[in-house]
Amino acid sequence: MAVMDRRKQVLTAAAQSFANFGYKATTMDQVAKMANVGKGTIYTFFANKEELFDEILHGVIIEMKNIADREISRDKSFFDNLYRVLDSLLEFRGEHELLIKLSHEFHDFGTPQVLEALDKVENVVLEYIEHELNIALENKEIKPCDPQIVSVVLKKLYITLSTEISKYRAPLSKEEIKQYFRLFLSDGLEEK
């Protein structure tokens, strides 16, 4: 078997193990067994569990960036693009087994490595929004603002409207989320 095939085999098994058992409960022995390779084979590619986990997380982040890139259409407005990107990324996060397991593990055990991984994922989203804000500023689509601050507010608002609001009332439809997003951000609450 080719070296790259074995590496891929190890990564696939490790991704499944982390998704099934979480970071804390995944062992190199377990990954070796799932990959049908000797434990030494894993160490020819990765120095330790942390390095293996980082490689898998890097793959997830690349997937997220590709999703965001697919959703951006330069002939659409900033707000239309933002809404589509946030919607797609939130859907991806909600369906991705590894991210779901990591969220549960952090909630239940507070594993520091998991917090660090989740922060990396969140930072990718924030950096992407910040990048798009800078483009919107250059194109004079939005008022002058600090893109770093606004990116955090936009992400938090979207998460509140799409998930957290259901703690208090019936969930909002995608169209309602979009309407509230526009109300708070592009139209404003003040009657003119």
TrEMBL record:
Cross-referenced InterPro entries: DNA-bd_HTH_TetR-type_CS (IPR023772), Homeodomain-like_sf (IPR009057), HTH-type_Tx_Regulator (IPR050624), HTH_TetR (IPR001647)
Residue ranges annotated for the HTH tetR-type domain, each copy included: 4-64
GO biological process, any: negative regulation of DNA-templated transcription
DNA-binding region listed in the record: 27-46
Record keywords, A-Z: DNA-binding, Transcription, Transcription regulation
Highest taxon of the lineage: Bacteria
A Pfam match: TetR_N
Signal peptide positions (record): none
GO MF entry, a single one: DNA binding
Transmembrane segments: none
PROSITE patterns: HTH_TETR_1, HTH_TETR_2
PANTHER family in alphabetical order: ACREF/ENVCD OPERON REPRESSOR-RELATED, ACREF_ENVCD OPERON REPRESSOR-RELATED
Protein name per its UniProtKB record: TetR family transcriptional regulator
Annotated source species: Paenibacillus crassostreae
